[in-house]
Specification:
GO biological process, one term: proteolysis
Distance between the termini: 49 Å
GO molecular function: metallodipeptidase activity
Protein name: Diguanylate cyclase
Number of strands: 9
Shape: globular
CATH topology: TIM Barrel
InterPro entries: Metal_Hydrolase, Pept_M19
Order of helices and strands: HEHEHHEHEHEHEHEHEHHEHH
Organism: Neoasaia chiangmaiensis
Structural class: alpha/beta
CATH class: Alpha Beta
Number of domains: 1
Strand content: 5-15%
Length: 338
């Protein structure tokens, strides 16, 4: 075992954005060829904690679309919540607080933090935020690709007749939803939202926001990435950006497939600009993520090695790999009302 491997194995590694395949095949505990993330791969890659997201595709902004989205998110969160029963609670634990994540990892179980990707799931009813929280969700991404009734997205959907901007950022409902998230202790995820939506969310939220799967636009000009002003504002508010293993967010496709060193380069750029306390990593596995050197959860140690090559200290790598996100979870928990 080399020094990088020993260092990786000692970390509390937390990947903040992984999708779950849908429909569910009941194979999370198996060593599959179809999933980038399953329990054997997590063990092999030394990944101790994961945020599993219920991804809700954007549809029409009408009652039927909202009802269908709500049915799906309930089903998906129940599948995530059922994983301890499916594979054994000695193997995985459902976690709703930063402390429960630490406790699960200390006990040798993989900590699972449920999440929701796309506020389309709540339709036009901010009251459903509390129901998502009760189902285990600890962050919600405000949009996906395509505007919803809460906020404008970074990438409008022509097939849904989206204008460039629908609300000019957040809608009134979006602000209500953020307030509801703050009240119940749920983190606000600003990945996927438009620049205006992101900047307004930072102002609106009582607690720091997180971009769970985004990269630096200064290094790769993609609309899903955050520009320097957004990074600065994120840091000023105490927030966090999790650099993600999506090749097209890390480098232009014409330059070839991104590598784990490209990911570490984005982390280093953000750390230099706004501080290591405001950056982390995520994979977006089973949702389009995967790069050379980190193509599935089994290759987690390669991320640590790449961070070492960038010159990060062991203490900084602890923060990047999970410490920063756990801090934000604690801030959200402490701001709960009722």
């Amino acid at each position: 075992m080399n020094d990088d491997t020993r260092q990786h194995d000692a970390l509390l590694t937390l990947d903040t954005h992984i999708d779950i395949p849908w429909p569910d095949r009941g194979d999370f505990g198996d060593d599959t060829v179809t999933r980038q993330v399953d329990l054997p791969k997590l063990r092999k890659g030394g990944l101790k904690a994961v945020c599993l997201a219920a991804y809700i595709p954007q549809g029409r902004r009408n009652a039927l679309g909202h009802d269908q989205a709500w049915v799906r998110v309930e089903q998906m969160l129940r599948v995530i919540g059922g994983l301890p029963d499916a594979v054994g609670d000695d193997q995985v634990r459902l976690c709703g607080t930063a402390e429960s994540v630490r406790s699960a990892v200390a006990a040798g179980a993989v900590a699972i933090v449920p999440a929701v990707e796309n506020g389309y799931a709540i339709g036009d009813d901010p009251g459903r935020v509390r129901q998502l929280y009760a189902l285990g969700a600890r962050y919600m991404t405000l949009t996906h690709n395509g505007h919803n009734v809460l906020a404008d997205a970074a990438i409008p959907r022509a097939d849904l007749d989206d204008p460039v901007a629908l609300h000019g950022g957040l809608s009134a409902l979006g602000r209500e939803a953020i307030s509801a998230m703050n009240d119940c202790g749920m983190l606000v995820d600003i990945s996927h939202v438009s620049r205006d939506s992101m900047l307004q969310a930072v102002e609106c939220s009582r607690t720091p926001v997180v971009a769970t799967h985004s990269c630096a636009r200064a290094l790769c000009d993609h609309p899903r990435n955050l520009d320097d002003r957004q990074l600065d504002r994120l840091a000023e508010s105490g927030g966090l950006v999790q650099v993600t293993a999506m090749s097209s967010f890390l480098k232009a496709p014409a330059l070839g497939r991104a590598t784990v060193d490209d990911l570490a380069h984005h982390v280093a750029y953000i750390a230099r600009r706004i501080g290591v306390a405001h950056v982390g990593v995520s994979s977006d596995f089973d949702g389009g993520g995967g790069i050379e050197g980190w193509s599935d959860a089994a290759q987690g140690a390669n991320v640590t090695a790449a961070l070492v090559r960038q010159g990060f200290t062991p203490e900084e790598i602890v923060a990047i790999w999970g410490g920063n996100f756990l801090r934000l979870m604690e801030l959200a928990e402490s701001a709960r009302r009722g």
